Amino acid sequence: MQDLFSITGKVALVTGGSRGIGLMIAQGFVEAGARTYISSRKADVCDAVAKELSGAGECISIPADLGTEAGCRYLADEIAKREEKLHILVNNAGATWGAPMAEYPDQAFDKVMNLNVKSIFHLTRFLVPQLEAAGTADDPARVINIGSVDGLQVPALETYAYSSSKAAVHHLTRVLAHTLAPKQIIVNAIAPGPFHSKMMAETIERFGDNMRATNPRGRLGEPEDMAGTAIFLSSRASAYITGTVIPVDGGISTRHG
């Protein structure tokens, strides 16, 4: 039982790992003893964050643009060059776009769906050999997709492509869980509520007081909330859980209206 929640010695990849939710998870993994790769589009930022996190453990930067299939293939190939086994894949890289319905551009759907949904499918399928090599019946390999509470309920803001993409992530999680279970790979999703991040900074600045007041827990998410959930989903404690979507939102998704 003492090792039930341990991820020490595992190998993890966190996309979008240089900031926000991805950084919270990557830092948690590093401090918990996993060799953690992070990827993001901006190489200088990705390299700097990996260097900083390496003060607490082992963190390696592999910058990549996951908005295309070729970018996903590149990242998967770079991981395969370095690791025979990948125990944990966190598909976190994402984008949002807000605009009134009458002004919402077609390119918003292309950008958001390509990164938020298609990249999860492409990167996961390209890394199946490394994930399958890591998984066992007692402790399967993990894929953790980052969805959103906005994929569970109608969002307050006009983020049509984003909320639609996150609902797609949740269902893609179930489909992949069904497909990959025989390969000893389990797939789950986390649906975060509001957390402090660069993507959420403007929204929190404008609506933060109301967001806290209407949250059943009365606060925004903290890094430990996200890291703890991801570590649980990566540890032997979650070995019999697959195809789930776990809201980490302080109870927002329980509200009506």
Q: Would you mind describing this structure in some detail?
A:
It is a single chain. By secondary structure, this protein is α/β, with parallel strands linked by helices. The protein has one domain (about 10-250): NAD(P)-binding Rossmann-like Domain (Rossmann fold), CATH 3.40.50. Helices cover about 45% and strands about 15% of the residues. It contains 8 helices and 7 strands. The protein has helices at about 20-30, 45-55, 70-80, 105-125, 130-135, 160-180, 200-215, 225-235, and strands at about 10-15, 35-40, 60, 90, 140-145, 185-190, 245-250. The chain has a 7-stranded parallel β-sheet with strand order 3-2-1-4-5-6-7, with helices on both faces. Helix 3 (about 70-80) runs parallel beside helix 4. The longest helix is centred in the middle third of the chain and has 21 residues, at about 105-125. The protein starts with 10 loop residues before the first strand and ends in a 9-residue tail after the last strand. The model has no long low-confidence stretch (mean pLDDT about 95).
Layout of helices and strands:
Elements: E1 11-15, H1 20-31, E2 35-39, H2 43-53, E3 59-61, H3 69-82, E4 88-91, H4 106-126, H5 128-134, E5 141-146, H6 160-180, E6 185-192, H7 201-214, H8 223-234, E7 245-248
Parallel strand pairs: 1-2, 1-4, 2-3, 4-5, 5-6, 6-7
Helix pairs in contact: 1-8, 3-4, 4-6
The strand line-up of the biggest sheet is: 3-2-1-4-5-6-7
CATH arch. level architecture: 3-Layer(aba) Sandwich
Number of helices: 8
Number of domains: 1
Main structural class: alpha/beta
Name the helix and strand elements from N-terminus to C-terminus, one letter apiece.
EHEHEHEHHEHEHHE
What is the helix content? 40-55%
* Oligomeric state: single chain
Using the CA coordinates, give the radius of gyration.
17 Å
Molecular shape = globular
Q: Give the overall average pLDDT.
A: 94
- What share of residues are in beta strands? 5-15%
Task: Count the E strands.
Answer: 7
Distance between the termini: 42 Å
Could you give me the name of the CATH homologous superfamily?
Answer: NAD(P)-binding Rossmann-like Domain
CATH topology: Rossmann fold
